Amino acid sequence: QVQLVESGGGSVQPGGSLTLSCAVSGSNFSFYSLAWLRQAPGKQREWVATIENNGKTYYKDSVKGRFTISRDNDKNTLYLQMTTLQLEDTAVYYCKQQRGSTHYWGQGTQVTVSS
Known about the structure:
- The protein is built from no helices and eleven strands.
- The protein has strands at residues 3-7, 10-12, 18-25, 34-39, 46-51, 57-59, 67-72, 77-82, 91-99, 102-105, 109-113.
- Strands 2, 4, 5, 6, 9, 10 and 11 form a seven-stranded mixed β-sheet that branches.
- The relative contact order is 0.32.
């Protein structure tokens, strides 16, 4: 069974940094791409970044240059390093892994950016 558990969320001031982690249980972690998504209050969930199994990365335009997605296949862990955080980055952040037609989600971790 595949389970994803996020951690690392918290409250920071604008301009601050946080690193999120997503621990993934289950076999063949390295075979599949992974993604981070977020949902702000009153808004739909939106895609933030993806890392493919070959390490290629993709980012939402508004986070390019500020966020870095990475993975450690030895630790079965996905990361999202977030710098220069802005008020509009406030959201619950989710990690996701798609295996075939099944999407596996974590429970989410809250990131709050406020002054």
